[in-house]
Design goal:
Blueprint lengths: L2 E3 L2 E3 L16 H22 L4 H22 L3 H16 L1 H10 L3 E2 L7 E2 L2 E2 L2 H4 L1 H16 L4 H22 L7 E2 L4 E2 L2 E2 L3 H18 L4 H29 L1
Antiparallel strand pairs: 1-2, 3-6, 4-5, 7-8
Helix pairs in contact: 1-2, 2-3, 3-6, 3-9, 4-9, 6-7, 6-8, 7-8, 8-9
Length: about 240
């Protein structure tokens, strides 16, 4: 039956109806506090402890995954928790492009940093990719909530991705992590990698938006495709910038 209040009919809710999950008003505040505290802790660990750089990055990476998952789950930050779950398998798969660059093309170096390696790649990299990609995916969702067009959202996500990964290229070599070698660079930033990293941020956002509620194996397949796309882009732009131009 249809209930009528005044002159406005109200349709009954269908079976299985669930209201849309909107960000809680304090979600951005909670995340800001979390990342501020994590940044301060990271500064202390990186610059004021005596362990090797590899163990520093590993400890911070593990600490991020443990604290972020517990923090977002405890405070019921649904969207950040779902993003974390989606990005973790992708982060593990991203070892393969780094492995290709360091072992096959030999244009990426992971120096001896005191930590175990996966092939030629420092082991902590399997979890480190989640952190920058979280910002690109979450920013895309926030822009979409503000009714920014899909083209505009992808544009700004790409710019943010370029800024984050470009900044990492410019600074992480000073901390004893990976660095580029034998390629065209500007301020320690390898030029061939910039467009692939821009595309990576956009595809991670689009993949989450389209498939984060899919079954695990399907999501894993999508994450594998993102990794393959990134690896192919790296090879193509390496050829374009280093060999053709």
């Amino acid at each position: 039956m249809v209930e009528v209040t005044g002159s406005n009919p109200v349709s009954p809710k269908p079976n299985g109806y669930q209201p849309m999950k909107h960000a809680r008003p304090q979600e951005e505040t909670f995340l800001t506090i979390y990342f501020l505290l994590f940044s301060l802790l990271s500064y202390f660990v990186l610059f004021h402890t005596d362990s090797s750089s590899g163990w520093k990055f590993f400890n911070l990476t593990i600490l991020y995954h443990l604290t972020f998952s517990i923090f977002t789950y405890t405070f019921r930050l649904f969207t950040p928790f779902q993003i974390w779950k989606f990005l973790l398998p992708l982060s593990i798969l991203m070892v393969f492009p780094d492995w290709f660059l360091s072992a096959v093309l030999k244009i990426l170096v992971f120096p001896e940093d005191g930590f175990y390696k996966i092939g030629t790649v420092s082991g902590y990299m399997a979890g480190l990719w989640s952190i920058p990609l979280f910002f690109t995916v979450y920013t895309g969702l926030k822009l979409e909530e503000r009714s920014v067009s899909i083209i505009g959202t992808c544009f700004w996500v790409g710019i943010l991705s370029l800024a984050i990964f470009g900044g990492s290229e410019a600074t992480l070599w000073t901390l004893g992590s990976w660095y580029a070698t034998g390629v065209k660079m500007w301020n320690h930033i390898a030029l061939y990698v910039l467009i692939p990293e821009l595309i990576l941020g956009v595809t991670a956002y689009l993949a989450y938006q389209g498939f984060h509620e899919s079954p695990f194996l399907f999501r894993l397949g999508i994450q594998f495709l993102i990794m393959i796309l990134y690896l192919g882009n790296l090879g193509f732009f390496y050829l374009l910038i280093e060999r053709i131009f």
